[in-house]
C-alpha cells in the first residue's frame, strides 16, 4: 500500500479531538525513536488529532500550528500496537517563503509497510514535493478567514487528506 492510496482512499470511523495546547498526549501519536523535538512545543503551539480507519488499518493525523511563528505541520501516521509510522508531513513555514509542501515516502520506498517506525519523516527515503526551489501552488496561511486560523487549517487538512466529516457517523 502506498501513501497515495491512504490519502485517496475511502476512510471510515473518523474521530476528531478538540484543539489543545501545552503538553500533547504522547499516546495519540507515539514516536519511540524520535527525540525531544517531536514533543517539545511551547504554549504558543496548538494541536489536534484526527483518527480513522482505511483498509482495516488505523491511521492518525496530527495537526500542529503556531500562529505567532506562522508555522504548521500536519503529519499522517499509521498506528501500530505501540508506535506510529509517519508516512508524510504537510508543512508550512513562513521563513521558507515557498508555501505548503509535503515530505513523504517516494519512488521505490513508497510502501508504507517498509517505512521506518517511531520517527518523523526524514532520511534518504523521503522526498520534498514540490522541491525547495520550485514553484509552490499553495502559498496561503489564512489567519483572517471565517473563524480564524484553526478552522481554516482544519479545512485545509480535510481537503488535503480527503477526510469526510460524514465518516464521523459510520
Report helical residue fraction: 10-25%
Mean pLDDT: 82
Low-confidence stretches: none
Query: Could you give the order of the helices and strands?
Result: HEEEEEEEEH
Shape summary: globular
Measured by DSSP, the beta-strand proportion falls in 25-35%
Alpha-beta content class: mainly beta
Record field, number of beta strands: 8
User: How many domain regions?
Assistant: 1
Q: What radius of gyration results from the CA coordinates?
A: 15 Å
Question: What's this entry about, in short?
Answer:
By secondary structure, the chain is mostly beta strands. It is built from 2 helices and 8 strands, in the order H-E-E-E-E-E-E-E-E-H.
Characterization of this structure:
The chain has about 170 residues and is mainly β. It has one domain (about 5-165). The protein has helices at about 5-10, 150-160, and strands spanning about 10-15, 20, 45-55, 55-65, 70-80, 85-95, 100-105, 125-130. The model has no long low-confidence stretch (mean pLDDT about 80).
